[in-house]
Structures are given as structure tokens and as C-alpha cells.
Amino acid sequence: MALPRAIRLLAAVTICIFLFLFLQILRAEPGAIRLPDGHKGKESNSKLQKWEHDPQLDPSGEPPEPLRRVKGDNYAPDNENSDRINATILSLVRNEELKGILDSMNDLERTWNSKFNYPWTFFNDVPFTEEFKRKTTAATKAKTYYHQIPKEHWEIPSWINHDLYAESVSLLRAQKVQYMEKTSYHQMCRWNSGLFSEHPALLTTQYYWRVEPNVRFFCDVDYDVFGWMADHNKTYGFNINIYDSPESVATLWPETLKFLQDHPGYVHEESAREWLEDGMHRPDNKRKANGYSTCHFWSNFEVGDLSFWRSKKYREYFEHLDRSGGFFYERWGDAPVHSVALGLFEDKSKIHWFRDIGYQHVPFFNCPNNPKCGGCVTGRFTDGEGWLNREDCRPVWFKHVGMD
Ligand SMILES: Nc1nc2c(ncn2[C@@H]2O[C@H](COP(=O)(O)OP(=O)(O)O)[C@@H](O)[C@H]2O)c(=O)[nH]1
Ligand SMILES: [Mg+2]
């Protein structure tokens, strides 16, 4: 028996409403990133909320086994046959930053190194003061070493044209490139990019963990981080991924492409090149940086294998960049230089996100959802101005590479 017309109409309308509601649910964004309290968000917010999911909000623990643990005295500071592998914590630091490095040391010792007792190796362009040595030695049970950087690794190289350098400084200062006028900043970036691995004191060392003054570590880490790198065949570990000021690296990518033209076989088959060239999220950055997204591993935290920085490919690449003068005529940072090299020459699966190492270098955080962490807000990326949230480019890394 046919249904009355009114009932059929009602049924059709109900189905339409149901379909409409169903589509709305499908389009809703799951797990949009929680923004810091008080962030009123403008344009920056809307970008963020398009990111589907911030994995740092998920409960997380340690990375996969095998994990090397403390058992008895196997990592005791004076154990000659300890389970420590060939590695050091390293820090380029000024005498005037003593208080800042002691704060960083106290945090890293408390959360990790008081268990594993890896040595600390300090570098400076001038001799360390006795007070610096005394106080930093007293801040750890592990061994401490102090080294001066050879002049030829620090001084402005002979091929830099000083007039051009001065002109570039005024030009890029006008474009608001931070620290452009600080020669020591250029020297520091160059050293951290390609000369730290060449310091005679590190020549037989394989892994390093870079630590700066005034950084914080929030989470207890109960496994040997260097041992984990070795067991899992990792080259590099990061924990924060941000965009750079494109004006500071405007010719880094074009110079890189020139290098690749001469060495077409150097790009790794499993490289993260697509990540370097991503233009979806910040197209302006990519345009101004002439093809490079400017997304980089924030290198004030890095755990790495020095063999990568000493490899033929990287030595040649660094030499090429260095000769082009961009460490002075622009303000190439060691973070984008390291990131571009890793993104091109390394297998992307050998780059690891240390999500579990809670960390802060002003103004950014890496703060896991983990009961082992204290003193930071889970998932908070910055406690600075709201627009800084826009600088987070981890989602671009996750998109292209995943979370390994
Ligand atoms: N010895 C020495 N260390 C420096 C110099 N400039 C920077 N550093 C160190 O290099 C690292 C990066 O410098 P920093 O001022 O923190 O730069 P930012 O993190 O980019 O603001 C820190 O560990 C500093 O202590 C310098 O002229 N001499
Ligand atoms: Mg710093």
C-alpha cells in the first residue's frame, strides 16, 4: 500500500537532515591542537587548527626496545669498564654564561645524566676561566673537558669580502634579520654548522648531545640515549621543529641546488627532500627562501652521530656553502644548514623525534604527555606571544616522514 504523500515528504526531509548532520560530523576536525591559555588567536590560530592531530597530546612513554638501563654500577662515573658508549655531551659556551650553563647542567643531570654519567665537553673561542671550570666540574659526577676553538675555525675566513659583509649587514638588518649585526653570531653558526665535528678533541668521539645555556629538561629519561641511537641505527635526534626567517637563508637553497647539480648522486634514495621543499603550510617562506620551506630541526637540542658531519658528502657540502659566503653575507644558521643536509643526504628513517625528552629553549617547548614529566604544560609549544604557534612545523615533518 502506497504511503500518503505527506509521510513520504517527511521521510525524505528526515533523510536529508540526517545526511547533512552526518557530513558535518565527518568534516569536523578531530583533536585540533590546544593552544596556550590566553591565546586569542588570529590568523595564526586558523592555520594551526587545520592540523589534524598533535601527537604530543597523546600519552607516550619511552621509544622502542632495546633500551639500555642502569644495572648495578654499569654506568658508575668511575667504572673503567662501564656500559657507556663513545659519546659526550657538548656545549659551546661563553664564560659569562656560567650561570645559564649550570642551570642547564642541573636539569640534564637530574633527569638523565646523573644515572649514565656521560662526560661533558665544553668549547669556547677564548680560554675558560678557572671559576667556569671549577663550578661546572662540581655540577656533575661525570668527567668534564674544556677546549678552546682553533683560531682558523673561528675567525672570519680569508675569502670573505669585508665591504660586502658590511653592506649585507645593513641590508638584512633593514629586513629585520635577528643578530645580523653580531659577528660572533655568524661565527658561532658557521662553527656549529661544519667545524665543531672537526675539533681535534672530538676526532675519536662518535655521538654527541648538544646543550646550550639556559635550557630546561622536564622529564626523567631512564635509558641510555646514546646507546639507543646506536642500537636503532639513528643518525640524528631532534625534539622541536620550526620555521626560520626566510630572509636569513634567502640563497641557502639556490646554493644547495648548485651543489646538487655538481653531485647529482648525493641525494639519498630515502631522503626527506619533500619535507624541505614543502610549500603547503607557509608558501611565503618557501617563496622568500627561493624554494626551501625553512622548516628545520631546532639545533640548540641535537643528539647526533658525528660520522654524518664528517662524511665526504657533508664535508663537500659545507665547504661549498662556506666558500659561497652565506654564513656572513646572509645569516645562515646551523639549524637550517644541518637540516637541509640531513633532509637530502640521510635516510629519513634515521632521523628520530625525541618526543620523550621534555625540553625548553625560550620561547619554545617540547612537552610530552607523560607522568615522568614535571614543570611544563603537556603539548604547549610556546609560552610567548600567540603568533609564535605558527612557527611550529612538526606537522610538516610528520606529514612527509612520519614519527620515527
Ligand atoms: N664561546 C662562545 N659561545 C658562543 C658565542 N656566541 C654564541 N655562543 C654559544 O652558542 C650557542 C648559541 O648561542 P645563543 O646566544 O644561545 O643563540 P640563540 O639560541 O640562537 O639565541 C650558545 O650555547 C652560546 O653559549 C661566542 O661568541 N663564544
Ligand atoms: Mg640559545
UniProtKB/TrEMBL annotation:
Does the entry feature the keyword Transferase, yes or no?
Answer: yes
Q: Which GO terms describe its cellular component?
A: Golgi apparatus; membrane
| Molecular functions (GO terms) | alpha-1,2-mannosyltransferase activity
KW Glycosyltransferase (keyword) present: yes
Q: Name the keywords, alphabetized.
A: Glycosyltransferase, Signal, Transferase
* Signal peptide range: 1-28
Family annotation (InterPro entries) = Glyco_trans_15 (IPR002685), Nucleotide-diphossugar_trans (IPR029044)
Q: In which residue ranges is the amino acid composition biased (Basic and acidic residues)?
A: 36-56
An example of a Pfam family matching this protein is Glyco_transf_15
Q: Name one GO biological process term.
A: protein N-linked glycosylation
Which parts of this chain are annotated as the region Disordered?
34-82
Recorded family membership? Belongs to the glycosyltransferase 15 family.
Q: Identify this protein by name.
A: Glycosyltransferase family 15 protein
Give the species this sequence originates from. Periconia macrospinosa
